[in-house]
Structure formats: structure tokens, C-alpha cells
Write a structure and sequence with these properties.
This protein has 186 residues and is an alpha/beta fold. The protein has eight helices and seven strands, in the order βαβαβββαβαβαααα. Strands 2-1-3-6-7 form a five-stranded parallel β-sheet, sandwiched between helices. A two-stranded antiparallel ribbon has the order 4-5. Helix 2 runs parallel beside helix 3, helix 6 crosses helix 7 and helix 7 packs across helix 8. The N terminus is likely disordered.
């Protein structure tokens, strides 16, 4: 791929609190034709959106966890600024619950980290619906279903471990042990 962009694909906002990842991704997507603005916090991203007389982004790549803040708040703000904005949510802690929340709030795509630039680029430009052939044929294991349920309830309780443990009717320490474990891949 050449260093000069072939097309002007529009304005893209990259929001990730990992400064190195943010910088590398921003440069790679700029080389592919996007006019890129980046932010490393929710506050920086909101400030970029609030600038007067500046067009809102056409595309956005948003990390779900922004140094303790939720990237879901930014999805709502991006949708309010430009309803046609294609928003790609990235997360290192993927769960069905957070994916559903992101899509309900207006994210166009949801990808789990680690992910490469080509996959991000394709997801930003892909206007198609879900790929029926990509759907898993096997059902989720019991441990994975439990993990997904815990993540959903944890999200409903805004990350509060004690409230989540009460809602799940389990001891707080038991919940903490379960959260410390990564679910098995199905």
C-alpha cells in the first residue's frame, strides 16, 4: 500500500486510552485515506465533538474501556452529532452483554482486541449485515453462558461487584474469583 491515500474516505475519530495503539492505528488508517483525529480519553473525545463549526466524524473507532470511563457514553454523543456515523466499538473484554449494549446505543460494529488494522478498516467500510456463515453452529458451553450472564449483570450494575453479587445471589468473593478467570473459548 502506498503512503499517500488513494481516496478521501471521510473524517475518522480514533478514541483509545492506549496511546501507542491509538497512534499506530491513527497513522495506519490515515494512510488508507481517512482524515483522522484522535483522543486518548472520553473527555478529549467529547471536547473534539463539541468544537463549533467543525463537522462531526463520519467514522469512529472507540475503545469500550477508556481509563475507567465507558466508551458507550461516546457512542451516544457520536450518534447525536452525526446519526450516519459508522461506529466501531473495540474492547479487550468482549462479552455478549457489552456487544448488545453497544449495538443498541448505535455502534455499527463490535470487535474484540487484539485486532489488526485490516480488520478494522474492513469493518468500518462494510455496510453489509451480519454474515450468516460466520455464525457459530455449536451452542455455548455452560461456563461461557455463565460468564456472559455475569458480564451482563455486572454491566447493569455499572461494574459494582457488591451489587452484582447481590443480584446474582452469590458471595462477593465467589464472584470476584469467577471474574478473575477468563472464560474458555467455545
Amino acid at each position: 500500500m502506498s503512503d499517500t491515500p488513494a481516496d478521501d474516505l471521510g473524517c475518522l475519530m480514533v478514541v483509545d486510552d492506549d496511546a501507542l495503539f491509538n497512534r499506530v492505528l491513527s497513522r495506519a488508517l490515515a494512510a488508507r485515506g481517512f482524515a483522522v483525529e484522535s483522543a486518548t480519553s472520553l473527555d478529549q473525545a467529547m471536547a473534539l465533538l463539541a468544537r463549533p463549526a467543525v463537522e462531526p466524524p463520519d467514522y469512529a473507532v472507540v475503545d469500550l474501556n477508556l481509563a475507567g470511563s465507558s466508551g458507550l457514553k461516546l457512542v451516544v454523543a457520536l450518534r447525536a452529532a452525526n446519526d450516519a456515523c459508522r461506529i466501531l466499538m473495540l474492547t479487550g473484554y468482549a462479552s455478549i452483554a457489552t456487544a448488545v449494549d453497544a449495538i443498541k446505543l448505535g455502534a455499527s460494529q463490535y470487535l474484540a482486541k487484539p485486532v489488526d488494522t485490516d480488520t478494522i478498516f474492513k469493518a468500518l467500510l462494510d455496510d453489509g449485515g451480519p454474515d450468516d456463515e460466520a455464525a457459530p453452529e455449536a451452542t455455548l458451553s455452560l461456563s461461557r453462558l455463565e460468564w456472559e450472564h455475569i458480564q451482563r449483570v455486572l454491566g447493569e450494575n455499572r461494574g459494582n461487584i457488591s451489587a452484582t453479587a447481590r443480584a446474582l445471589k452469590m458471595h462477593r468473593r465467589t464472584l470476584q474469583r469467577k471474574l478473575a478467570k477468563r472464560p474458555l473459548k467455545d
